[in-house]
Write a structure and sequence with these properties.
alpha+beta, eight-stranded antiparallel beta sheet, five-stranded antiparallel beta sheet, about 25% strand, globular, oxidoreductase, flavoprotein
Length: about 450
């Protein structure tokens, strides 16, 4: 019998369904146990129990991270570990395993500071950071993982370790980029950066302006400074009341921007994007960082989805043509495609090296679809065709935080890392998790 302060949920219990569900409803998880950890001691007890009883371990905070079936195994729910502490003098935040980025953003804002959070403030801060972390301030400051000062982690043998540049440095290196393969991080200390306001939003161009908008964005994006994060999305919006009327039921190419410098300079940089026709909707404005999530306005609700991603060296006019051919307004495609500009500080090695891959990417190509209107096999075919078409511009890699249902194969996972980095990760996995207890993830198996 497992002894914890927090409740343990089994099939048939009242809270079992709520605690087992991930953000991606394409997987109907049926774990043997879900441990809702009340504190770090509960995490330790759950890991030790799993090891003693031959159960693999998955971790769930907000539900965004579980993309591999957990049937018959043990899930540790860390949602209750949700404390945030900000040190404004040191410009740091200490963040618990269950914290969402929105909590960190709100805690840092009164001090004129912001975290290197992602486009969706409802995502868990720890899981996002361990996978690298591509966000609105990243081209200026780097991956979120580049700004981690300290991690507390429960390893496969049930020990609580504090890791940092001078303490368990090998494990510290592996955790920052290796996701949840090396233990369960219960708390992290991260840098905050000065930022209170963004000049950002989206320009929503209609189908007739799609080619001009995407080609124009491709050319313009090669010229912008590091203070500017930007993405282009090709999407057919559903005809639902929740969608703003100007874009409801319509196809659009959305050009998104987030400028973290002076607003008047942001206006100058964004001006060329207004030359591609008359947008259906223009939400670009000066906004507090606490409203940064409105720029991408990603779905806050769980849904069944199929995702793929490819890291691109460049995004040329020919690349834009390829994307429009397979996901443009005339393609009758189920794909939602987003191209994110990388480069800038993403391409530079951090002061304290880590295992994050993708530093050679100029762009990230991400595709997603809702499962249901189109069957899964049809979505697989559509996504595979797009990413095969993008192969001439690919680095050969992908981003770990953007993997989807079909990416759990270790051969796919290794594409997220340069070969020497992946080899070292497998060697460290053999040290810290030789039995591969933490394998219900995008797994890095132990060497040998």
């Amino acid at each position: 019998m497992i002894e914890t302060k927090g409740p343990v949920h089994r099939p048939g219990d009242d809270e079992y369904d709520a605690r087992r569900t991930g953000y991606n409803l394409a997987l109907d998880h049926r774990p043997a146990l879900v441990v809702s950890a009340a504190d770090t001691a509960d995490v330790i007890a759950a890991v030790r129990y799993a090891a003693e009883h031959g159960l693999a371990v998955a971790v769930r905070a907000t539900g965004h991270g579980i993309s591999v079936p957990t049937d018959g195994q043990l899930v540790i729910d860390t949602a209750a570990l949700d404390e945030v502490t900000v040190d404004p003098a040191a410009r740091t935040a200490t963040v618990g395993a269950g914290v969402r980025w929105r909590q960190v953003i709100d805690a840092a804002a009164p001090h004129g500071l912001a975290p290197l959070s992602g486009s969706n403030p409802d995502v868990g801060a720890v899981g996002y950071t361990l996978g690298g972390g591509v966000g609105l301030l990243g081209r200026r400051h780097g991956f979120a993982a580049d700004h981690v000062r300290r991690l507390e982690v429960v390893t496969a043998d049930g020990r609580l370790l504090e890791t940092g540049p001078g303490t368990e440095p090998d494990l510290f290196w592996a955790l920052r980029g290796g996701k949840d393969n090396f233990g369960i991080v219960t708390a992290m200390e991260i840098d905050l950066v000065p930022c209170t306001v963004l000049y950002g939003g989206g320009l929503y161009y209609p189908a007739e302006s799609a080619a001009a908008a995407l080609h124009g964005w491709a050319e313009w994006s090669r010229t912008v400074p590091e203070e500017l994060a930007t993405a282009a999305q090709l999407i057919r919006y559903p005809d639902l009341d929740a969608v703003p009327e100007p874009i409801r039921g319509r196809y659009a190419v959305v050009l998104r921007v987030a400028w973290s410098g002076p607003a008047e300079q942001g206006e100058e940089w964004v001006r060329p994007l207004r030359a591609f026709g008359t947008p259906l909707l223009d939400t670009v404005r000066e906004l507090p960082f606490t409203e940064a999530g409105t720029i991408h306005h990603e779905p806050p609700f769980a849904h069944p989805a199929y995702d793929r991603n490819t890291a691109l060296r460049e995004f040329t006019g020919a690349t834009a043509d390829a994307v429009l051919e397979l996901a443009g307004p005339d393609a009758d495609s189920p794909l939602i495609v987003e191209l994110r500009l990388q480069g800038g500080a993403y391409s530079r090695e951090p002061a304290v090296p880590n295992a994050v891959g993708g530093r050679d990417a100029g762009y990230l190509a991400f595709s997603t679809s809702m499962i249901g209107p189109v069957a899964l096999d049809g979505l697989r075919t559509a996504h595979a065709a797009l990413h095969e078409r993008l192969r001439p511009w690919s680095t050969g890699g992908g981003f770990a935080n953007f993997f989807g249902l079909d990416d759990a194969d270790p051969a796919v996972v290794r594409t997220a890392y340069p070969e020497p980095v992946h080899r070292r990760l497998t060697e460290l996995k053999a040290v810290y998790d030789p039995g591969n207890l933490f394998r219900l993830n995008f797994n890095i198996p132990p060497a040998g």
